């Protein structure tokens, strides 16, 4: 299993747009066989940070999912939410291998 951790810098004034963007990506990851562990948004105080975690069975499975970016109409529509609203200022992806309790 490989887990993708996405750290976002978001516009705090556009949380509702970010939530719409996030809901679409959770649905699309599930549609493509991944497990989405959720988006984590600011809860208290001023913050411009958010995080998402989702897993695929392997790096190859993740790479198959990535081939749909810019091609699949639903992927394009989900990215359009981000691009048109400006809710995401920047993001960074990191791949991790989970160590889970037995």
From TrEMBL:
SUPFAM superfamilies linked: Dimeric alpha+beta barrel (SSF54909)
Residues covered by the NIPSNAP domain: 7-98
Signal peptide start-end: none
InterPro entries noted in UniProt: Dimeric_a/b-barrel, NIPSNAP
Highest taxon in the source lineage: Bacteria
Identification of the protein by name: NIPSNAP family protein
Species this chain originates from: Amycolatopsis echigonensis
Lineage, broadest ranks: Bacteria, Bacillati, Actinomycetota, Actinomycetes, Pseudonocardiales
């Amino acid at each position: 299993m490989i887990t993708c951790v996405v750290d976002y810098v978001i516009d705090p004034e556009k949380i509702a747009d970010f939530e719409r963007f996030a809901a679409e990506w959770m649905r699309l990851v599930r549609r493509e066989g991944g497990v989405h562990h959720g988006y984590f948004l600011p809860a208290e105080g001023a913050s411009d940070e958010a995080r998402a975690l989702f897993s695929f069975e392997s790096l190859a499975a993740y790479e198959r999912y990535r081939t749909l970016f810019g091609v699949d109409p639903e992927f394009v529509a989900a990215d359009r939410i981000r691009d048109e609203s400006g809710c995401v200022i920047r993001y960074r992806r990191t791949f991790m291998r989970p160590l889970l309790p037995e």
